[in-house]
């Protein structure tokens, strides 16, 4: 299937909506009713907008906000953008929504949470190993639980290492 190139500036469109927060559905409804819409089906327009939002999020222009009581992700522009500069060759400066201290605190919370889970799964692994050493005839019965706890420990250790490296990045700013 050929790739259809769409010439549409999603960032300028979002800024023109004058909404502080939006979901993909809100954005999709506004896009489908706009005369600039270049998609025939709602599904293709929603996919296009979602991919564009993800690109803008990785570029640091849009932030995903935690939504309470809803499955839909809330998004917001990081700052009020000067719409006249969007699309021109000028550089749009973006300020951070959350200060580095707040980000570091959130990362520290996650590190504490995952370290606690890691200790729990390590204890569980050690208990299975100890039981297998005491009762070698029952080793086959608990091998699956032992392997599962060991794998979970490895995953949690990876998460702890990842968040610790993120912490050093944000503290270095």
Characteristics:
173 residues, mainly alpha, Arc Repressor Mutant, subunit A, 2 domains, two-stranded antiparallel sheet, 5 helices, 5% strand
| Element order: H for helix, E for strand | HHHEEHH
- What is the strand content? under 5%
Main sheet properties: 2 strands, antiparallel
The total count of strands amounts to 2
Computed CA radius of gyration, to the nearest angstrom: 24 Å
- The SS-based structural class is mainly alpha
Describe this structure in words.
This protein is mainly alpha-helical. The protein has two domains: 10-77, Arc Repressor Mutant, subunit A, CATH 1.10.10; 100-171. 60% of the residues lie in helices and 5% in strands. It has five helices and two strands. It has helices spanning 10-17, 24-33, 42-58, 100-134, 139-171, and strands at residues 62-65, 74-77. Strands 1-2 form a two-stranded antiparallel ribbon. A hairpin with an 8-residue loop joins β1 (62-65) and β2. The longest helix has 35 residues, at 100-134. The chain is elongated. The chain starts with 9 loop residues before the first helix and ends with a helix.
Short characterization:
With 173 residues, the chain is mainly alpha-helical. The protein has helices at 10-17, 24-33, 42-58, 100-134, 139-171; strands at 62-65, 74-77.
């Amino acid at each position: 299937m050929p790739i259809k190139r769409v010439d549409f500036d999603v960032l300028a469109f979002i800024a023109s909506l004058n909404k502080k927060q939006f979901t993909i559905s809100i954005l999709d409804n506004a896009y489908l009713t706009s005369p600039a819409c270049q998609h025939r089906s709602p599904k293709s327009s929603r996919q296009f907008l979602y991919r564009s939002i993800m690109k803008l999020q990785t570029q640091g222009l849009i932030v995903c906000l935690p939504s309470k009581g809803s499955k839909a992700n809330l998004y917001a522009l990081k700052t009020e953008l000067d719409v006249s500069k969007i699309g021109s060759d000028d550089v749009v400066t973006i300020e951070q929504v959350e200060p580095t201290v707040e980000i570091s605190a959130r990362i520290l919370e996650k590190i504490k949470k995952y370290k606690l889970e890691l200790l729990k799964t390590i204890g569980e692994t050690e208990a299975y190993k100890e039981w297998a050493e005491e009762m070698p005839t029952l080793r086959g019965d608990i091998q699956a639980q032992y392997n599962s706890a060991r794998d979970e420990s490895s995953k949690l250790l990876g998460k702890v290492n990842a968040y610790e490296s993120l912490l050093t990045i944000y503290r270095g700013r």
